[in-house]
């Protein structure tokens, strides 16, 4: 029983002598340090403990990362959207600050470091939490937050830090480090966050003499609170033989979920934080669109399938699209009925319909194109037109880069047939083959070719090339046609070709076979030769030439020629010449022969205008006069005075035939007789000329069957000399050879 203080004070007033009972009663009214204070004797403690949350529930609440995330910001701000962060910045009146800038509180702004006074407030003074007897007062228990204290087994802070991985605790928790005494006393440390093995992360509360026995019943009360699990995970409370234990909650399997026939009202996500929408697996129940990625959840188009990150994030009213691949179809809005597969495939497709695009970056910039089919990596990356077909690795990769237009109705088949990186464009073209390198405009082209590799093939001719608009086709190869049908009377055209390989047709005609006409199939019509060309029929050395106004037949040296101007017959030596512009007939024979000779004697049949034979003349007149027995050439020797000393002979008499004189060297000349004279020659030449008082002479000799040499020289020195003007005379006689 306690005695009121006023009564005790009266025992000890000045001059009073307290009795033994009064003295004992007075000390019995106080608690000795060796005595425990019952919790029932601490005013408000029971109510205070009742107001504390159950530790296990509280721990679960603390370990739940999603608790109050709809209303409160997480410590790492991971549940703040970009608009939330901007709102906080605006409210805090801060912009983008470097991470290492320290700020202090300044109402209403909150800094990231403590001021001096704030730091002092963080320290706990023991005299603020115990009375004069060293006992903890009940009104301070809440301030100490004993329900957040957890005991450790280590006896020093350093040992605890070394083994901190074995404990689960977080910022603001109080670590109670026991002494090694039989009844341990605890030193309390605040964990203020940071590296758990760094002593700077712990703040000594200054309370180091607290023991459980100092508060009666406190140990039992704390025993009613469960220790938190030491490892991360999901747990449930398990009552076993009077003990309440934490037991790990087994992870559910997919089979568990499926067997529950569960319904997911929200898409399943595989990413947390701001990236959650990028990993959604689900279905839009309003549009029956399926997705695994970040398809626009607000689309209204129906029956779409999207699989991949950034796959149809802009979709609006487009329907019936099936698009697979990261970034594939990321710009599709109203386009529909497209089938796309591959990384970056149809990245630029927006409103286009009915396209089938398969391959990395295939149809990359198609935009509003429709009805295109592309198969192969980088096929059709730049084209924006309609009804194009590109098949093969890089098929038509740069088609559409350059020019101005959408470029439609092209077919490109072949790996590596990209076009020039600077641009190739056009429409209505068919290109077939690998590694074809085209550039510039390619409208209406039809090309078939093939190369093993790209090797600057831009300007090479193609195996087959054509133009749909100009309607032509050419081949850079020999042409063979198998199974050609036999022609009958219905085939009325022949195929002919120009030198450049261009084919054309002409009316069919019957040709004279090279083997000759068949018996009973003679040539029954005319054979006409062109007036513009000389026609030739020949066999070996025999030739027949026909031209407008000329017929000529040759056989070795013999020739018969008929023209508008006359006729000629010759065997190379003998000749008969008839010309319409002359008044005579020229007859020539070998000079060694008998001239014009009749095969028979016709003298008995002569008429007044008949040519007579020698026999007839001799019969009537006998030998007459002195007839030369030789042919003769007489000419005055003349030479030009222009410094070239060219021969300009003045012929006085000539029955041998024409001579052609040429200068060969100083004082040396040669004369050619084109009629090839034969027989014995007599040559005489005389010089009537003095050169600076020196006698000049000449010598002439037969050089060959058809030439004569003439040499002019100074007699005293025998040096050749060139002269000008008329200097002498030359005479050549040709005698027949006699046996």
UniProtKB/TrEMBL annotation:
**Protein name per UniProt:** Uncharacterized protein
Source organism (scientific name): Chryseobacterium vrystaatense
């Amino acid at each position: 029983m306690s005695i009121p203080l006023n009564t005790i004070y009266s025992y000890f007033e000045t001059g009073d002598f307290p009795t033994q009972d009064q003295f004992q009663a007075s000390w019995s009214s106080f608690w000795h340090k060796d005595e425990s204070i019952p919790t029932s004797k601490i005013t408000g403690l029971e109510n205070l403990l009742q107001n504390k949350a159950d530790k296990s529930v509280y721990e679960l609440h603390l370990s739940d990362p999603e608790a109050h995330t709809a209303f409160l910001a997480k410590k790492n701000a991971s549940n703040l959207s970009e608009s939330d962060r901007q709102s906080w910045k605006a409210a805090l009146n801060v912009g983008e600050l470097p991470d290492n800038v320290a700020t202090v509180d300044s109402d209403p702004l909150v800094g990231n470091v403590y001021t001096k006074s704030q730091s002092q407030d963080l320290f706990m003074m023991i005299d603020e939490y115990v009375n004069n007897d060293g006992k903890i007062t009940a009104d301070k228990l809440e301030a100490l937050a004993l329900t957040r204290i957890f005991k450790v087994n280590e006896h020093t802070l350093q040992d605890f830090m070394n083994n901190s991985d074995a404990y689960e605790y977080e910022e603001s928790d109080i670590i109670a480090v026991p002494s090694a005494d039989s009844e341990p006393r605890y030193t309390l440390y605040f964990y203020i966050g940071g590296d758990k093995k760094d002593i700077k992360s712990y703040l000594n509360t200054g309370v180091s003499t607290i023991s459980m026995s100092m508060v009666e019943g406190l140990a039992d009360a704390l025993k009613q609170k469960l220790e938190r699990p030491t490892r991360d995970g999901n747990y449930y409370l398990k009552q076993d033989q009077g003990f309440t234990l934490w037991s790990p909650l087994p992870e559910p399997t997919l089979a568990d979920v499926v067997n529950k026939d569960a319904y997911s009202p929200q898409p399943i996500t595989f990413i947390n934080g701001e990236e959650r929408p990028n990993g959604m697996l689900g279905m839009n129940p309003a549009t029956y669109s399926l997705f695994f990625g970040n398809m626009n959840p607000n689309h209204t188009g129906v029956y779409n399938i999207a699989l991949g990150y950034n796959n149809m994030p802009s979709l609006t009213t487009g329907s019936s699209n099936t698009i697979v691949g990261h970034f594939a179809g990321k710009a599709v809005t109203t386009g529909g009925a497209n089938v796309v597969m591959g990384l970056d495939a149809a990245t630029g497709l927006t409103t286009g319909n009915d396209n089938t695009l398969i391959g990395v970056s295939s149809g990359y910039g198609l935009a509003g194109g429709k009805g295109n089919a592309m198969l192969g990596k980088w096929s059709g990356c730049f084209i924006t037109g309609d009804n194009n077909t590109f098949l093969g690795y890089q098929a038509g990769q740069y088609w559409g880069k350059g020019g101005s237009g959408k470029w439609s109705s092209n077919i490109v088949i072949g790996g590596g047939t990209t076009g020039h990186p600077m641009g190739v464009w056009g429409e209505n073209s068919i290109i077939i083959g690998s590694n074809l390198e085209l550039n510039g405009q390619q409208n209406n082209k039809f090309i078939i070719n093939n190369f093993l590799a790209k090797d600057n093939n831009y300007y090479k001719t193609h195996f087959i090339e054509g133009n749909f608009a100009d309607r032509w086709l050419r081949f850079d190869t020999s042409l063979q046609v198998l199974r050609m049908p036999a022609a009958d009377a219905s085939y009325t055209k022949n195929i002919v070709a120009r030198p450049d390989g261009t084919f054309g047709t002409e009316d069919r005609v019957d040709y004279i076979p090279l083997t000759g006409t068949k018996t009973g199939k003679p040539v029954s019509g005319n054979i006409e030769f062109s007036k513009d060309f000389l026609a030739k029929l020949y066999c070996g050395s025999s030739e027949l030439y026909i031209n407008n106004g000329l017929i000529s037949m040759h056989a070795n040296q013999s020739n018969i020629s008929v023209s508008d101007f006359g006729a000629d017959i010759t065997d190379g030596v003998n000749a008969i010449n008839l010309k319409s512009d002359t008044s005579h007939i020229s007859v020539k024979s070998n000079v060694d022969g008998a001239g014009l000779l009749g095969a028979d004697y016709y003298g008995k049949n002569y008429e007044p205008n008949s040519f007579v034979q020698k026999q007839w003349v001799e019969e009537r007149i006998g030998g007459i006069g002195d007839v030369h027995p030789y042919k003769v050439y007489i000419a005055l020797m003349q030479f030009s005075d222009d410094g070239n000393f060219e021969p300009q002979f003045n012929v006085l008499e000539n029955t041998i035939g024409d001579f052609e004189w040429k200068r060969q060297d100083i004082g040396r000349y040669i004369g050619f007789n084109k009629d090839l004279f034969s027989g014995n020659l007599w040559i005489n030449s005389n010089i009537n000329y003095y050169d600076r008082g020196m006698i000049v002479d000449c010598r002439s000799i037969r050089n060959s069957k058809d030439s004569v040499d003439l040499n002019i020289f100074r007699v005293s020195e025998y040096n050749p000399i060139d002269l000008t003007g008329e200097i002498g005379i030359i005479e050549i006689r040709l005698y027949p050879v006699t046996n």
